[in-house]
Design a protein that fits this description.
The complex is a heterodimer of chains A (303) and B (126). With 303 residues, chain A is an all-alpha fold. Helices cover 73% and strands 0% of the residues of chain A. Chain B has 126 residues and is mainly alpha-helical. The chains are: A mainly alpha (303), B mainly alpha (126). Chains A and B meet through helix 2 of A and helix 3, helix 4, strand 3 and helix 5 of B.
Chain lengths: 303, 126
């Protein structure tokens, strides 16, 4: 289709669309709606013409099918439902109690995670003489506990959030598992409890976890409930800056990858030059930088 | 996909069926979007195909649904980068939308059973 064959149709349609929007105050919202409708109508007109209608007839028919646009814009964005309600009251009204199964599961997982991680540390520091195989297994149990807490919490419906779909929650479970396992094995190597070759497992696991976290974060969509959004529009709460400014969230994501990549690289270099005794400090530094970054970017003082 | 309402031969029941269908516009749109991202005309076509062209949902009704769904955070929209024609506004379902959709489908199944029982419907083949 060339531009020329399109123009006469477009002309008719655009004029009719203008007429349909006559008397509507052209707010940015109304302008958006008009552009959206325009693109869809053009597609509909093309379909009608393909079915053998004349261009002018097709345009008129498409507009007729559309219906009344004024009704769409009479209720602008938010008809302020329950705006006098405060956050506490609304929270009480929409309260969702955690499921007993979830609470029991979290307690068990927390216990398992603590036991696993404490045993690993005891084994690594030599307080408890554990063979290498057992230590790796115990660390795995601890990591699974932590990952379970993350994944299962996300899959729960809360007072303010809808539950996350199982597949996505599973992704967070896997990412957490890899992160804790990877960092844990790295820590054990640093403490001298595991031989150097174990780094071959620690680094890929950690990198995979970072990539998975970045992917999950970048593709995350809204989970807030409608009442939360309605309240946020009328009375902004302690604002989550990453939600309001996606570009800031994206920047934070990039910084995060940079910080951890550099940390990992420095860690490796130091490990092979200075030695294992001190190279782990890199991760401590990386973590500190990362937290400061988070604090600076998420909670910037409002001007 | 939502149920096809069986379009029978009585003209009076057409309005009833259309009303029933319209009452579920939001859920139907979420059903279409849970199959993948889409834009207005494509969503319209999908619904039109499912209804067999009978008592289809009006486009204005759909635009109202998009606006409601987006306001409640159940769908997100973004502008496509088409160079020809107009730029399309695409919609994708959010995690919140998926959760609400699942709940609505469950509610529909329960309600359908209740109404079938109340109306004494013998043949319940969907």
């Amino acid at each position: 289709m060339t531009d020329d064959s399109h123009r006469p149709v477009g002309g008719d349609l655009h004029r009719l669309l203008d007429a349909a929007f006559a008397g509507v105050e052209m707010t940015p919202d109304a302008q958006d709606l008009k552009e959206e409708i325009r693109a869809n109508l053009l597609a509909r007109v093309a379909e009608l013409e393909a079915a053998g209608r004349s261009p002018a007839d097709a345009a008129r028919h498409a507009i007729d099918e559309l219906g009344d646009v004024h009704a769409l814009l009479d209720t602008p964005g938010a008809p302020a439902t329950g705006s006098p309600m405060g956050w506490e009251e609304a929270g009480r009204r929409h309260r969702v109690r955690p499921k007993p199964r979830f609470v029991v599961g979290i307690v068990v997982a927390a216990f398992t995670a603590t036991a696993g991680l404490v045993l690993t540390v005891l084994g690594a520091t030599g307080v408890l003489p554990l063979p290498i195989g057992i230590m790796i297994a115990v660390l795995g149990i601890g990591a699974t506990g932590v990952a379970w807490i993350v994944g299962d919490s996300l899959a729960q419906e809360t007072t303010t959030n809808h539950p996350m779909p199982a597949s996505r929650a599973g992704g967070y479970f896997l990412a957490s598992l890899l992160a804790v396992y990877g960092l844990g094995i790295g820590g054990l190597v640093a403490l001298g409890a595991l031989p150097m070759w174990a780094v071959a497992f620690a680094v890929p696991a950690t990198v995979a976890a970072i990539i998975l976290f970045a992917f999950l974060g970048a593709t995350q969509t809204n989970r807030n409930k409608a009442w939360v959004r309605a309240l946020q529009r009328t009375q902004p709460p302690m604002t989550n800056r990453f939600e309001q400014e996606p570009e800031t969230a994206a920047r934070f994501g990039i910084y995060t990858v940079v910080v951890w990549t550099v940390s990992s690289a420095v860690f490796l270099v130091l490990s092979f030059t200075v030695g294992w005794t001190w190279s782990w400090v890199t991760f401590l530094g990386g973590f500190a930088v990362w937290m400061v970054l988070l604090a600076r970017m998420q909670f910037r003082p409002s001007r | 996909m939502p149920e096809k309402s069986d379009s029978d031969t009585f003209p009076a029941s057409d309005a009833f069926a259309a009303d029933l269908l319209r009452g579920h516009t939001d859920t139907i749109v979420m059903a279409v979007l849970s199959q993948g991202e889409s834009y207005g005309f494509e969503i319209f076509k999908t619904i039109r195909m499912a209804t067999g062209g009978d008592h289809e949902i009006k486009e204005a009704t759909l635009y109202a649904a998009y606006r409601r769904l987006e306001r409640d955070g159940l769908v997100e929209s973004y502008w496509g980068d088409e160079t020809q024609g107009g730029r399309r506004k695409y919609y994708r379902i959010t995690d919140a939308g998926r959760a609400v959709f699942r709940g609505n489908v469950a509610a529909w199944i329960t309600t359908r059973r209740i109404i079938d029982a109340l109306l004494d419907v013998k043949d319940t083949t969907p």
